[in-house]
Write a structure and sequence with these properties.
This protein has a 5-stranded antiparallel beta sheet with strand order 3-4-5-7-6. The chain has a two-stranded antiparallel sheet with strand order 1-2. The protein has 9 helices and 7 strands, in the order E-E-H-H-H-E-H-H-E-H-H-E-H-E-E-H. The chain has a domain of 174 residues: 2-Layer Sandwich (Muramoyl-pentapeptide Carboxypeptidase, domain 2). The two termini are 15 Å apart. The N terminus is likely disordered. Helix 1 runs antiparallel to helix 2 and helix 1 crosses helix 5. The longest helix has 20 residues. The chain is α+β, with helices and mostly antiparallel strands and 255 residues long. The structure holds zinc ion. Zinc ion (ZN) binds next to strand 5.
Length: 255
């Protein structure tokens, strides 16, 4: 459901120099317009990216042609060895370590600060994203590449246990659950846990997506998070809705 029509949405200025924390994550940024650029060291061979683009294109063509064929091809994509451990979008319990209160792992969708993965990488952070969001990102990625930019995933799907770990860390940082809740979503409210949000890097790519994302149904949600995008299909015809100033204005975060 697109809840972006809320009258609560309005952009607002964010003072520079304030530490910002992804409400659904734990990333800290020193300024709202300068998310740390992820490392570019884990680029994948072009062959894999070409294959990924080909498969995405196939899926799109099939969707246009016949629903049944699309379902079959989508199922084939989901079962590709590139996406080991793929489950229903937003699913996945995460690692035993995180579920027992320990450190999250890649199985939880964990990516270290400053790290990022390609949309075609075989990791749960990408594989467990909502298929519609992943498809839109694939289309945007292809267009961004033509402009010489690569859209990379700095944070994608997260297990509930990973989100709980981030929240506990935020409580330590901010001193209270109430204050932490202003910056970090809970396992129940986080759109990342649902597989419906993605943090894009590096900055130039996030900026590109901010300017061109609407045509793919991809929109920024929060004025204070230049990197956080969600799927908003109505944006293709109507443009992106106004952003919330920050997550405290987002009624979905109060669940
Ligand atoms: Zn985010």
């Amino acid at each position: 459901m697109d809840t972006n029509t809320s009258a609560l949405r309005r952009p607002g200025p964010v003072p520079d120099g304030i530490l910002h924390r992804d409400p659904d994550g734990g990333r800290t940024h020193t300024a709202p317009q300068t998310p740390a650029p992820p490392h570019a060291s884990s680029r994948k061979p072009r062959r894999r990216r070409r294959l990924f683009r080909f498969v995405v294109t196939l899926t799109v063509l099939a969707t246009l042609g016949a629903g049944t064929t699309a379902a079959v091809i989508t199922a084939a994509v989901t079962a590709r060895p590139d996406y080991p451990g793929t489950v229903t979008a937003g699913g996945g319990d995460g690692s035993a370590s995180a579920r027992s209160g320990g450190t999250p792992t890649a199985e939880d969708g964990y990516l270290a600060d400053g790290d990022s993965v390609a949309l075609s990488d075989a990791v749960p952070a990408v594989a467990n994203l909502d298929p519609g969001l992943r498809e839109a990102l694939g289309q945007a990625l292809a267009a961004a590449e033509e402009d010489g930019l690569e859209l990379r995933v700095a944070s994608g799907w997260r297990s509930k246990a990973y989100q709980a770990w981030l929240l506990r860390d935020a409580v330590r940082t901010y001193g209270s659950e109430a204050e932490a809740a202003r910056w970090v979503g809970t396992p129940e409210t986080s759109l990342h846990v649902k597989g419906q949000a993605v943090d894009i890097g590096p900055y130039d790519s996030a900026d590109w997506l901010n300017r061109h994302g609407a045509q793919f149904g991809l929109c920024r949600t929060y004025d204070n998070e230049a990197w956080h995008f969600e799927l908003s299909p109505s944006a293709i015809d109507q443009g992106c809705p106004p952003m919330y100033r920050d997550p405290t204005e987002d009624p979905r975060m109060r669940g």
